Amino acid sequence: MLSKEDLGLAQENDRLRRENRILKEERETLKKATVFFASQKPGGLSSSTARQCIENARQCSENEREGKSTNLHFPLDMCIMS
Is the pTM above the cut of 0.70? Predict the structure, then answer.
């Protein structure tokens, strides 16, 4: 039997886990959208820049799934401003 405090903490934990999962899914979607829309701009991305954006997004996602801490950040500015 859980006390009211323990029950409240368990519910808060569940809520935070759901929120964290949703935020991770949204971040993944935004990474993919960034690559897509960057490739749609007038003149498009060079193929090597597009490949690098996709690879960096893939590496970030892989590190997140494995729970690895990394200094690799999705290069939003490079993918859009190229």
Answer: no
CB atoms under 10 Å from CB of 56, counted, come to 19
- E strand or H helix that includes residue 55: helix 47-65
**Which domain range does residue 50 map to?**
4-81
User: Which residue carries 């409240």 as its tokens?
Assistant: 8
* Burial (CB count within 10 angstroms: exposed 0-12, middle 13-18, buried 19+), residue 35: buried
Number of structural domains (the chain) is 1
Rounded CA gap, 21 and 23, in Å?
5
- Over residues 31-44, the mean pLDDT reads 72
